[in-house]
Amino acid sequence: MATGNQSNLCSICNKPSAKYLCIGCKKYFCAKDFKEHEQQLSIKFDNEITQPHDELLDQIRKLEISNSLALDLFDEIEQWKNMTINKVEKAAEKAQHELIELIDKQRITIIKQFESITSEICHRREEENFVENDIDELKQKINEIKQKLEQFTQIETTKTIIVNNDQIDWNRLIYIQEQQLDCEYIALKI
């Protein structure tokens, strides 16, 4: 940091006894002022380098110990999970309600058709007003209702009522992605 030179003035006290040159600031100093300059550099180094470095180290150690950032993100993931479960439960309840309505609608249609033919059968029987064509026509109506009832109660038919949607990409619905700006941090993508 210092070199000897007899002909220069001290940059602090202006005395001609400046023997020391600071190679950082390129100024000359006497022995007394050079020691003070070194002390000021040491204080500046501590304040501007060592102290911020130590504070940063403390923050890094706290991150390792408490992992509070991860806890906040875990809380956010848990909240997202609960909201998603709630939405899925509501969608399932809606689908169940729609299924009940659809089953009731089909059941009521079959019952109405059956009641209509029952009424016609009773009427014809009471009045004994039927011929072969009437029997064939009533038999055909009974078979149609029977087929509708069989179709309605078959497992394959009820399976087609439920629409299964596997278009959701569960791996991309929520994910963790590392992003870089000035420094790296973890981003939660919902």
Could you name the ranges where pLDDT drops below 50 across 5 or more consecutive residues?
Answer: none
For the largest sheet, list the strands in their spatial order: 1-2
SSE class = mainly alpha
Taken together, the total number of domains comes to 2
Number of β-strand runs: 4
Explained architecture:
The chain has five helices and four strands; from the N terminus they run ββαααααββ. It is mainly alpha-helical and 190 residues long. The chain folds into two domains: 43 residues; 92 residues. Strands 1-2 form a two-stranded antiparallel sheet. The protein has a two-stranded antiparallel ribbon with strand order 3-4. α2 runs antiparallel to α3. The relative contact order is 0.06.
Detail the topology: elements first, then pairings.
Elements: E1 20-21, E2 28-29, H1 31-66, H2 68-127, H3 132-153, H4 155-161, H5 170-173, E3 175-180, E4 184-189
Antiparallel strand pairs: 1-2, 3-4
Helix pairs in contact: 2-3
Quick structural overview:
With 190 residues, this protein is mainly alpha-helical. The protein contains five helices and four strands.
Which properties best describe this structure?
190 residues, mainly alpha, 2 domains, two-stranded antiparallel sheet, 5 helices
